[in-house]
Amino acid sequence: MRYLPLTPDERRSMLATIGARSIDDLFVDVPEAARLSAPVDLPRFMGEMQVERDLGRLAAKNMTASSVPFFVGAGAYKHHVPASVDHIIQRSEFLTSYTPYQPEIAQGTLQYLFEFQTQVAAITGMDVANASMYDGSTGTGEAVLMAMRVTKRNKAVVSGRLHPHYADVVHTVCGHAGAGMSIEIGGVHPSAPEDLSSRLDANTACVVVQNPDVFGNLADLRVLAEATHAAGALLIVVVTEAVSLGLVMSPGSMGADIVVAEGQSIGVGLQFGGPYVGLFATREKYMRQMPGRLCGRTVDGQGRPGFVLTLSTREQHIRREKATSNICTNSGLMCLAFTIHMTLLGEGGFKRLAQLNHEAACDLADALAELPGVEIPTRSYFNEFTLKLPKPAAGVVSALAKKGVLGGVPASRLYPGDASLENLLIVAATEVNTEECRASFVAALKEVLA
Amino acid sequence: MSMNNQGRPTNIVAGGTDAIVTYTGHRGLMQEEGLSFDRGRSGKWGVDLPEPKNKADRLGGVRRKGEIGLPELSEPEVVRHFVRLSQKNYSIDTGLFPLGSCTMKHNPRLNEKVARFPGFGDIHPLQPQETVQGAWALIDRLAHWLKTLTGMPAVALSPKAGAHGELCGLMAIKAAIEARGEIRRRILVPESAHGTNPATAALIGYTVDTVPATTRGRVDLAALKAKLGPDVAAVMVTNPNTCGLFEDEVLGIADAIHGAGGYFYCDGANYNAIVGRVRPGDLGVDAMHINLHKTFSTPHGGGGPGAGPVVFSEALAPYVPVPFVVAGADGFTNIEQEEDAPAGARPFGRMTAFHGQMGMFTRAMAYMMSHGSDGLRQVAEDAVLNANYILANLKDVMSAPFGDTGPCMHEALFDDEFLKGTGVTTLDFAKALIDEGYHPMTVYFPLVVHGAMLVEPTETESKETLDRFIHAMRSLAAEAKAGNTQGTNRFGGAPYLSPRSRLDETAAARKPVLKWTPPAPKQAAE
Amino acid sequence: MTTYFTDQHEWIKVEGGIATVGITAHAAEQLGDVVFVELPAIGKALTKSGEAAVVESVKAASDVYAPVSGEVTEANDTIVGEPAKVNEDPEGAGWFFKLKLTNESELSGLMDKAAYDAFVASGG
Asked: ipTM beyond 0.90?
């Protein structure tokens, strides 16, 4: 077997050194009834070529984003990832290293984490960022728990236009997290203003809003931030499309206390939902209440600059049941992908990428609005908006797929059972959509609706 | 003759390099590299993007103003920056990485190739289900392998890492207890447990009750039984445990907790020791997470990502969270909403936005298929053999607190008894190992022994590598006991030969600097 | 003025109904370099053995418990800004907070210096 270096002779000589007659002697502590005498009922070993061929057949059954006109978003976005990103993250020293617990021989990882934290703080407009969460959705759950710790209150007011899967994650974690925690979710409408301020009370720990929201609406959050702060609560702003931060006012500048974002759009790729990278940033005064690892700058014994994991007393390996979170493994390598892509973009490239995304969405919206019976309730948006179709969107999306177009996410897939949302289709456009892709989509939709 | 008058000296001159101070700060191949942020804005980019049209925007008045503060570099500068950073890292591809409880095994590159097939890497989690039937098939196959290997009837694949899997497991336990109309508030956790166990239990509102260990390094079953009662929801036991030992009374633990109406959660971090040889389902386990980034070779990537699928017993199977894949006559369906769950299923909620770590599923699947059922069994055997070989070769010069109680499993535990009176600490010993070209073992964990050193070689190390490591460890132990033979502070000052010497963690924690800030503008000269 | 000690390694000095509380030299040494201290708010009512403050080094974190019940009258902000003071002078300038005692009889359950030293020597 190609991954196992021991030869049968070596195994025998090693057993002799140990003083064991056979390998079974090393498993004597296993209760006899639980010792398997033969391999379990699964296929035997395969060579590299066979595995590649077999899994290649499964992969070939899937319709890939790059092969068709593609407009699916709702929390994960198709962007171009520069070739150097994927090359660098496959360098052995990054790919096959561990959490930087021995900083003297992990400065590479630590320095990019420091750069990552700086980038995340900069684009979100916050003071400090951590070294990542699993993804945007779990980061949102952590943010709500953190707000409850900071305020010592236990109600979360959640926008009805927070991605429903994110809301489900918050609901699941808080629903289990302890007595008295409650979640109030606002009503769902694709575009009408949402009144969250009226739900604020003396027990409200936080208000959670997504911007742009799951239907694509962009909002000015400053008034909500003021009302939230006046009630002694924290404003948590969730961003599922990190590219928007290149063109939209930062959540920090609008008054956010905690910002959680899905970083998948920058450097990571679609990957069918994971691994992604959760960005998590907050105000300096809440630094010690943050979940996850933090990298800090310091000096070594000779006074040279260097980096270490710091403020670790918040974490599970030291604080155990009093830790701010149970997270250990995070999204290290995806942070690296994010950091490389962001460094390639730089200030100018990041802003232009965002501008191109917005323009792609505006052009697509203009073309789709011409179709008979199609309305666009979303007024202000970044690169994603909602279409109101003359018939249920789920069937339309399937019909489009048969024509080789992946045309968005039906709202009913996220909000099942809500008849008022049945005809809504959430559509995203990015820099990868050419004029030709957009025209194919418009033509295919026209045929499907006819 | 035709004469080449460009001959140059080729003789070797003896001499050290210690005294050389370089002008650049670089030391040969070891390049100093500043922060990207120190470069500032230059107007050059590492990407080429078309000119925007800059028509009126539809941002509703929330357009960003002013600078973000990101530096600008060209592609060659970016590539060089990160390549230089990479060269400051130790990795499993560099050498032995015997980090106990972390299972740093070889990461096959076939895994990377398969995960990057466009059919897996370039598909969206919310595209129509009929357009990703191959992805559901892969997920379904992974589930089948994990269930078969563990002898458990159900699996939740969506948890994103080990600790997330623990959370998933405990939530299912909580749901099952609530479904019986009961409330239970306590979870029993052995003192040798990973920190994530008590942290996870506390996160969802349980009181953590610590169970002591016996002098044989196992859970004290009598003490555990004494703590059982109608308010105990579960016991969380790592097996093999963090001392590298198999809990030989595991069936007694399972019987005791079941008898008290609670559930048996097994931390599967050390599953590599038993994969293919022992099925947790035969040990009375109700839930166990599997770290795909340990046992099934997906790369650790400098701290993540991982993946933490959880296998469940019959009793907990109904509570598997959404989403999950079900096979039907005309293909696979992904159940994404609790109300769409098939009869009998009572999903407790949702762990993450999408379907879990697909990129890790493909890698793990490629690895499992490569080994097959026979190869995976050999994995456990070689992992255990390698650890016992290290234990047998070191226990006379180091101190192995449980070295005489029988074989270890996949990792060998030492304490600092052998360093007593030498002035050398466990930390010093570990740092000296860096100078010898190794990543140190896990130190100061588990907490149940003093100055712990936990060595996990894994099955992907050759005998030759182990022999060299054993030689290094024996030499260091001898030197520590002899004291200062090289006339330097060999241990206390270590490491000397790494890109950085010991870093000032106290200063880092007292005045945290967590991001780059622009230097203060220079004062104009008076 | 007498100094008392607890089995959780706090010391307490009482003068005119006001007690000063800190962590013992032994505790400071065990923790290592202190990097962070969190002190109770002035006016907070503490109960004997309840959590009163937090002290952290790089790799360890501990709660500091109230040796006796009382109301916090003062907190030592110096050690918040300069946590190193706790290591330099744990039983003097590195004090944590002052309490107005509400139940002086609770003092009788605490150790004196000799008893505490014996307790530490026995591995407590």
From this structure: yes
